[in-house]
């Protein structure tokens, strides 16, 4: 394929199944897109794509936890298309377990996929987008980047970290004309629990790790979120002149976050006097 400046070039991770696959399919329906799909199995992905859309797809086998592999995929993208307009960091893994139950190895695996893979991509597309003076990066987190669920410690922690990374990156890249968005979905009906979920090898009596596993199965079965509608939302964001810093996706996300924000505000007010008591005395008011 020759570099084509008239087309928008998308670089997407986590594209083999679920939301990522829906994003790839939706993008390819629009002839104005070229899609770079980062995946562990390009052949499997290509079988999911209608043959008439394959010319607009570049599927690259990549280990997103390895920065050198990510660099190679970005280099191949640039050799093929000459630019990167939109990045969607969608890959993720879930590991069930309480803090005390999870090993360092299990925690680090969650960070490698959910955080460091995103860092690898962002760090290596930033120079390209700065040179272009344009670009959009969308990082898929979760409502669990904003509040926690017990016995889901590794996932919660990585998504909070991704929230911080995305917010910081957005401030840093804004002067270069680059937009950065955090996407925070609630439950979507995908195979994430079956395909990308693991459990701590250690169980400690008293924790509710096994109960959480059953709850997550139920959440997926009853999920209101449609992966194709998620893809539509991603495409809609890419067309906005002013993008949100964070976008919650799903009715459950709205309901949960309204309750969570209210609890935080109530607690802030409850402890107001103690909070401000830590200042030096006789300072002018802020």
From TrEMBL:
<protein>
    <submittedName>
        <fullName>Short-chain dehydrogenase/reductase family protein</fullName>
    </submittedName>
</protein>
<comment type="similarity">
    <text>Belongs to the short-chain dehydrogenases/reductases (SDR) family.</text>
</comment>
<dbReference type="InterPro" id="IPR020904">
    <property type="entry name" value="Sc_DH/Rdtase_CS"/>
</dbReference>
<dbReference type="InterPro" id="IPR002347">
    <property type="entry name" value="SDR_fam"/>
</dbReference>
<dbReference type="InterPro" id="IPR036291">
    <property type="entry name" value="NAD(P)-bd_dom_sf"/>
</dbReference>
<dbReference type="Pfam" id="PF00106">
    <property type="entry name" value="adh_short"/>
</dbReference>
<dbReference type="InterPro" id="IPR051911">
    <property type="entry name" value="SDR_oxidoreductase"/>
</dbReference>
